[in-house]
Amino acid sequence: MSQCRVPRFSVETLIQQYTHLQLVHNSVLGPYKGGLRFHPTVDEGVLKFLGFEQIFKNALTGLPMGGGKGGSDFDPKGKSEAEVRRFCQSFMTELFRYLHPSTDVPAGDIGVGGREIGYMYGTYKRLSNRHGEAILTGKSLLFGGSPFRPEATGYGLVYITKLAVEKKLNRSLEGMRCAISGSGNVAQYAAEKLLSYGAKVVTVSDSNGVLVFDEGMTKEDFDMILECKNVNRERLSSLKGKVSGKYTAGETPWSVNVPVDIALPCATQNELDEDGAAMLLKKGVLAVCEGANLPTTLKGQETIRSNPDIIYMPGKAANAGGVSVSGLEMSQNAQRLTWEPHEVDEKLHKTMSNIYALMEKHSNGGNLEDGANRAGFVKVATAMKELGWIL
User: Do domains 13-142 and 150-318 have the same CATH topology?
Assistant: First the structure.
């Protein structure tokens, strides 16, 4: 069912202690597609489970993309701009020979944003003398990126959450208290879209602590968080006394005592454990919609499922907006076109609506989680059978 490629090599003296991994999993529906992650926790096991999940997430989008994952245990935090640039260049010096628009097209993930994609794409162009190719997505608009790609995962998460709340609860997002974990790309744009719908964003976090907004985040708070994370590249603790929220070190959105209607884990894998899930149930949570890849532990999932009235949407469905627009970026590159932002947003809306419809169709009277798992698996398995890869 899968193919694996795990090159391991040394690079320049500055970064030769890091392991570089690019794992590919399944190409039955199209070229391998998934994010590159730069984080100390990255190893072959992490990339295998992320790549496996990516196969079924990409299948749900309806776009011709296989699944894969890659990255390194290099940690960009605390590194200078020059150190990050040199690492990205060395990483791509080895990876570039495996990439092609019809073979393997990575995107960004934790630790890999527009800056890192730019450095890697510049190295690819220098080494290959090929220009305008969709061998990376999440690129700058200056060299082939898609409008709306940075916003896509966070916005898509809120679009599909809004559908679930309206259809399952017969309610509006307006006034709902939404707890977000993380403060990176996904969390930022999820918060922005929630604010536009009149929801109350009550938490954001990073690996050191959590900001709690008892009355909901304000637009001014949001702008300061963007500056903190995207411009100054600082920790949320630097916002103590500057925003309306209270910062608590060593806590998460799932451990602090704040009322929550909707939980949106948007940070990393295995962040919402059994205790955190139990705390959410005590708070009367109505929905858990995953904005990260597998953010809920197995015990956490079991705890959430113990109350069948809670909406639970797994990341393979709820955070598929990002890879959907990555697929659209590939289409734009192939046509040598750049669509208008409203066109991409309309396609993202449609994709998330289609994913929700697939979950309902395949739920067989059960829940959305079952529907997502069945829909993705059936599509991949059927394609493999039709290609003669399985009996």
Answer: yes
Cβ count near 63 (within 10 Å): 20
Q: Determine if residue 30 is left, alpha or beta; phi over 0 gives left, psi from -120 to 50 gives alpha, anything else beta.
A: left
In b/e form, how buried is each residue of 79-105, taking b as 16+ CB within 10 angstroms?
beeeebbbbbbbbbbebbebbeeeebb
* pLDDT tens for each residue of 18-74: 656 655 689 999 999 999 999 999 999 999 989 999 999 999 999 999 999 999 999
**What are the pLDDT digits (tens) for 329-340?**
999 999 999 999
**Whole-angstrom distance, CA of residue 354 vs CA of residue 349:** 9
Tell me: pLDDT of 119 over 90.
yes
pTM of the model: 0.90
Correct CATH for 150-318 of 2.160.20.10, 3.40.50.720, 3.10.129.10, 3.40.50.10800:
3.40.50.720
* pLDDT, mean of residues 213-233: 95
How open is the CA angle 53-263-357, to the nearest 5 degrees?
Answer: 55
Q: Which residues contact 130 (CB under 8 A, 6 or more apart)?
A: 124
Q: What is the pLDDT of residues 283-342, one digit of tens each?
A: 999 999 999 999 999 999 999 999 999 999 999 999 999 999 999 999 999 999 999 999
High-pLDDT (> 90) share of the chain, %: 88
Active site residues: 69
Q: Where are the alpha helices (DSSP H) in the chain?
A: 44-61, 81-95, 114-128, 149-168, 185-196, 219-226, 274-282, 298-305, 315-318, 321-335, 341-362, 368-386
Instruction: Give which of 122, 67, 66, 114 is closest to 91, Cα–Cα.
Output: 122
Q: Which of the listed CATH numbers 1.10.287.110, 3.40.225.10, 3.40.50.2000, 3.40.50.10860 matches domain 13-142?
A: 3.40.50.10860
